[in-house]
């Protein structure tokens, strides 16, 4: 199973990156800003430039999970086998104080690689389910926040506990 980032989400990110670049580089088209103004504008432009490149990368990216592991196809692609997974984190980023709205980011690390997937990905729930199964199967420790976030998606990450009635 695999998923891609939907064009609508990437379009919005592209517009944000373009607006940020216009606001930070625009003053250089009109005048030559004082160095105390130019330095923060250029720093902001660099950040928006990186965001634009990242958005472009995600346009061509596909995330796949199967019995062997998780793979990121496309520019700067990488793969991590389930037996190589060392740490997993699932973070929730709220856009409002009442914690309504927002997104999740799933990060899998192992074998010197890192694959991060945002909840805007089509098929994010299937990816999260596969990662949760790998965490359970390997008995990997996760933070309390990661555990709670997996549970909120309906995926337990704690290994099943043996019944006290079994030997």
Automatic annotation (TrEMBL):
<keyword id="KW-0812">Transmembrane</keyword>
<keyword id="KW-1133">Transmembrane helix</keyword>
<keyword id="KW-0472">Membrane</keyword>
<feature type="transmembrane region" description="Helical">
    <location>
        <begin position="36"/>
        <end position="53"/>
    </location>
</feature>
<protein>
    <recommendedName>
        <fullName>PH domain-containing protein</fullName>
    </recommendedName>
</protein>
């Amino acid at each position: 199973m695999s998923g891609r980032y939907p064009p609508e989400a990437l379009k919005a990110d592209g517009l944000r990156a373009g607006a940020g670049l216009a606001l930070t580089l625009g003053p250089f088209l009109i005048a030559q800003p004082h160095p105390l103004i130019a330095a923060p504008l250029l720093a902001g432009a660099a950040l928006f430039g990186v965001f634009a490149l990242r958005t472009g990368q995600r346009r061509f990216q596909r995330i796949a999970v199967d019995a062997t592991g998780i793979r990121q196809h496309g520019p700067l692609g990488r793969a991590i086998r389930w037996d190589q997974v060392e740490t997993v984190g699932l973070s929730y980023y709220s856009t409002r104080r009442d914690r309504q709205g927002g997104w999740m980011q799933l990060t899998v690390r192992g074998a010197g690689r890192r694959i991060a997937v945002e909840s805007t990905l089509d098929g994010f729930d299937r990816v999260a389910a596969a990662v949760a199964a790998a965490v359970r199967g390997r008995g990997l420790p996760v933070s309390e926040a990661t555990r709670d976030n997996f549970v909120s998606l309906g995926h337990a990450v704690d290994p099943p506990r043996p019944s006290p009635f079994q030997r």
